[in-house]
Write a structure and sequence with these properties.
single chain, MetI-like fold, globular, 73% helix
């Protein structure tokens, strides 16, 4: 009799477990469909927005828009690339070193918490506030005019939190065996960081660099008070100390994002302001897409090499 009762209770328990498993599987499928629809919606939205900007921009193209004179946007295009280069040159070393410090050297004391709160607060600062700060510190206090270096310093302030946070999180997410194994072989802490940990998390660090570069490409408010709205470049002048040399970082330089703003707000002075603004926006979107794709390709290649799946391994 007791055997019959036990077998019945086991059957009832198995039936409950089977129902729970089926319910979990059903819930998992439903949520998979929901999240797939959400992801597909945002992907379609991004594609539609980029396609609209690019198509509208190129539909109003006319000869001379890519020229390097006052009627083209060639100078603004160069200024944008040059400013992003200067920004990464400043923010990447500082951000990576700060991330290394937060992940490997800083403890969990009050100072570390204060630094982390400061980084989070810095990432939420409005760009117009950073622009006014840059104008006060990099322009007024130095007695200089608007220049690309001041603009790159202002954008670096906005880019540092993403690079620092990405570096710290990527280092903390690595297996502890990498660090302990390297140090067990006699490597110092710094050698372990440089030779083992950083190469292992390089693809994730590049993600932070992509975010920083995207901020530089599209920033306008912070550059309004620092980089200036004028561009006077002589492409035959390569004296870097000259105010008209294209590679002089201490000359005023209007970027594409600023140029779009100028054409939209003061476009009455130019009869083709609408076409110039639309084409500048299309070029800016294409630049960001190309930079992101190139960085992703480089990241994927580095990951394949680290995993030993590269085609060019010997």
């Amino acid at each position: 009799m007791s055997g019959i009762i036990n077998s019945g209770s086991k059957a009832l328990a198995n039936d409950r477990i089977s129902k729970r498993i089926k319910s979990a599987i059903r819930t998992d499928r439903i949520m998979t469909v929901v999240f797939s629809l959400v992801g597909g919606f945002f992907l379609a939205l991004i594609i539609a927005l980029a396609a609209y900007i690019i198509i509208k921009g190129f539909s109003g193209y006319y000869p001379g828009l890519l020229g390097f004179d006052s009627d083209g946007i060639g100078n603004q295009l160069f200024n944008t690339v040059y400013l992003v280069f200067l920004t990464l040159l400043i923010s990447v070393p500082i951000g990576v070193l700060a991330g290394i410090y937060m992940a490997e050297y800083a403890g969990n004391g009050k100072l570390t918490k204060f630094i982390r709160i400061s980084i989070e607060s810095l990432s939420s600062l409005p760009s117009i506030v950073v622009g006014l700060f840059g104008y006060l510190v990099f322009i007024l206090m130095t007695g200089m005019r608007w220049n690309l270096m001041a603009g790159s310093l202002a954008v670096s302030i906005l880019s540092l939190p993403s690079i620092t946070t990405t570096t710290e999180d990527s280092l903390r997410s690595l297996p502890k065996s990498l660090k302990s194994g390297s140090m067990a072989l006699g490597a110092t802490h710094w050698v372990t960081i440089v030779k083992v940990l950083l190469p292992a998390c390089l693809p994730r660090i590049i993600t932070g660099v992509i975010l920083a570069a995207g901020r530089g490409f599209g920033e306008a408010a912070a550059l309004l008070y620092t980089a200036g709205q004028s561009t006077h470049i002589n492409w035959n002048n390569f004296d870097i100390t000259s105010a008209t040399c294209p590679f002089n970082p201490f000359r005023p330089g209007e970027t594409l994002a600023l140029h779009i703003w100028v054409m939209r707000t003061e476009g009455s002075l130019n009869p083709n302001s609408q076409e110039i603004a639309d084409f500048s926006a299309a070029i800016l979107v294409i630049m960001v897409l190309l930079f992101s794709l190139t960085a992703r390709i480089i990241t994927a290649r580095i990951s394949r090499k680290q995993l030993g799946n590269g085609k060019d391994k010997k």
